[in-house]
Amino acid sequence: MFGRLAAKQVPNKEYAVVPGKVNPDLQRERKKCTFDTLELTHFLDGGVEKYKDRKERENFFLSDPELMDDVPPELMSHEDQYRNGLKKACYLFKKLKELRENGGTIDNYRQLLGGSLGSAILKDGNPLALHYVMFIPTLMGQGTPDQCAYWIEKAWDCRVIGTYAQTELGHGTFIRGLETTATYNPKTQQFFLNSPTLTSYKWWPGGLGQTANYAVVVAQLYTKGECHGIHPFIVQLRDEKTHRPMPGVIVGEIGPKLGMNATNNGFLAFKQVPIPRNQMLMKNAQVLPDGTYVKSPSNKLTYGTMMFVRVVIVQDMASYLAKAVTIAVRYSAVRRQSEMVPGQSEPQIMDYLTQMYKLFPYIATVYALKFSAQWLWNMYNDVTAKIDAGDLELLPELHSIACCLKAVSTADTATAIETCRLSCGGHGYMACSNLPTTYGNVTAASTYEGENTVMLLQTARALMKAYAKAQAGEQLSPTVEYLNRNRKFRPWSNTVDSIVEGFKQIAAGKVAACALSLQRGVESGLSSEEAWNRASVQLVDAAEAHCRAFITDRHLDMVRNGMNELSPALREVMAQLCDLYCVFWALKRTGDFLQFCGIRGEDVQNLQDYQNELLVQIRPNAVGLVDSFDLRDEIIGSALGSYDGQVYERLLQSAMLSPLNAKPVHDSYGASLSALLRAKY
Ligand SMILES: CCCCCCCC/C=C\CCCCCCCCCCCC(=O)SCCNC(=O)CCNC(=O)[C@H](O)C(C)(C)COP(=O)(O)OP(=O)(O)OC[C@H]1O[C@@H](n2cnc3c(N)ncnc32)[C@H](O)[C@@H]1OP(=O)(O)O
Ligand SMILES: Cc1cc2nc3c(=O)[nH]c(=O)nc-3n(C[C@H](O)[C@H](O)[C@H](O)COP(=O)(O)OP(=O)(O)OC[C@H]3O[C@@H](n4cnc5c(N)ncnc54)[C@H](O)[C@@H]3O)c2cc1C
Description:
The chain is of the alpha+beta class. The chain contains 22 helices and eleven strands. The protein has helices spanning about 25-30, 35-45, 50-60, 80-100, 115-120, 130-140, 145-155, 305-335, 355-390, 395-425, 435-445, 450-470, 495-525, 530-535, 535-560, 570-590, 590-595, 600-620, 620-630, 635, 645-655, 665-680, and strands at about 160-165, 180-185, 190-195, 200-205, 215-225, 225-235, 250-255, 265-270, 275, 285, 295. Helix 6 (about 130-140) packs antiparallel against helix 7, helix 12 (about 450-470) crosses helix 13 (about 495-525) and helix 13 (about 495-525) runs parallel beside helix 16. Flavin-adenine dinucleotide binds near residues 204 and 448. Its cofactor is FAD. One of its GO terms (molecular function) is fatty acid binding.
């Protein structure tokens, strides 16, 4: 394991970080703020009590030196990143238990997995994340009462540690094409798990490499000689005492990645590995002892855990973005560069309108995502309760909106974080800014849990169905109500309401255009699948437009109806952010507005002017707004974004952590450089 580093002293003591000293520019910014930042923090937490709980929780975890890194993970080897991640993940479990036993306010590991507290403690990922995010939820969602009674307590207590093994080397998206088989033998009442090809090796599951001793394995079920499609099975991977792989189980880790290097993603293959019949998760479909197959009410219920994770990802993105934009805004208040007026002192870079444009729409995006995530979470809970009561009617709508929100929230957040990095100039490129690691964590979410293009195509599929219903005059579900062919579209009026209405018109126009393309494709002799493929660029675009209409609608609705308790000063700032989010996206989609909403050139100019006005209005509150996210320095984890703004001192301090600075002359000098310097070629 990496030891403590010798070189921690900065070369000159007067450039060391001074506890309690706050950068004067940041102090001035905080004085300018027009609203009460604590009021906003309370709103974000969902009330004073929840705020206090969070503070208590953060204190409990973040003041524990065992959970803080001596060495930043980016300076560790891949193996040490895992070791360090696992050590902390296990310690966290112990500490959580301690907190619960003392009547603490945390009831499960969940609050430690998301984008803020979790990523502060385990910056590079948590090898137990999949156990909590997918293994336990799959047991809960797909197990019979008996299976739940047997497995869930063991799993909560970490007496078994699991993962979710679905993706294979050859298939990630197309899960109906998975190759792993589970073949039932009624004589022994066992399933035999087998990996018939190299492409059937499971590939990617988090914690699979060296951590998990069990997995939910998704495999093609064969019984009585017939294949019934993919089903989930609980499979023991490692011996409970020795942790050695079970006979016939081939398991390992897949190697370093762009980010998330402590998550211990693994590979897995089986050579006819037997498991008892009662380890098929049988809440939905069953295999009876004699091998008779009993169908599920819907084969899509097997996809329930993916749906759950897509829902929580949206919330997770808002947390990551709050962190990144806090770093960039604080740095932009401290950093001074160039001359705005020749001869005058260098302004704070945040005074450049282009810098405001880079950052403020992303402060607004945190709220836009939060409000949509909250709505989606509520819908998820309603729909799952209904499914448990046998009513599956709303499942397609939940699937459709979860897919596009997952895709749009992850793509927007990745773009936003990269923009935050660019907004910090060269220093944003440093690992110690924490922007590269944050980007690494976030960009993964565009791929995992359903690759984004594929997710948008799922939504597009639902939109095409909704359009056909609308044309037939049938009733539509709330998220696609705007497709109603009798709906009167309101004319453009240079207001934020008009923008939100405009996004609906755009989505409706694009959906109709896709339907026409599909129809023309088929009329021209293409099969419906070929026509779909030909229209797919348009379809993805229509799904994104639908999602944007949903997000802006939700955001405006919250500002109009969900903030009555807030002070007028704060409501005004919240309304500015909502307007900015809407105008920002309207201007990014000017072509669409011109095409579908009957706006004219001068309306675009009005939007541009209004965007500039909003940026200037938000400017004095920018630091206050990010302070309101109330992210502790340990969570920010950045030399550029700490509360005190001692940016240059922290950059120097973090450079001194590099092992290359441990000695005045590095060993490599003797090993290679000295010879080169002396060589006479
Ligand atoms: C209790 C414990 C608490 C713990 C809480 C923890 C909370 C933590 C908080 C924050 C943490 C955040 C996250 C942290 C870290 C996460 C770590 C990374 C995890 C990554 C894990 C993975 O990636 S697992 C693997 C995921 N894999 C995928 O997503 C595969 C994607 N592919 C698919 O989903 C499908 O194959 C497909 C949808 C693309 C296509 O499926 P299929 O071929 O079967 O369908 P069709 O296209 O033919 O469509 C048929 C029909 O079905 C409809 N449909 C498809 N899917 C669904 C669904 N899920 N639900 C409902 N309906 C569905 C489809 O729309 C079609 O409908 P039609 O009516 O016929 O049109
Ligand atoms: C960090 C990380 C963690 C992960 N953790 C897990 C885990 O714990 N458990 C697990 O089982 N899996 C996990 N995965 C796997 C993940 O779910 C898959 O990578 C994901 O579903 C995408 O599948 P794929 O990699 O096969 O991509 P592919 O499906 O091969 O996609 C490649 C390209 O093909 C395109 N494409 C594919 N199908 C279509 C289509 N129908 N129409 C149009 N375009 C298409 C995609 O848009 C993409 O551009 C993880 C992945 C990552 C990156």
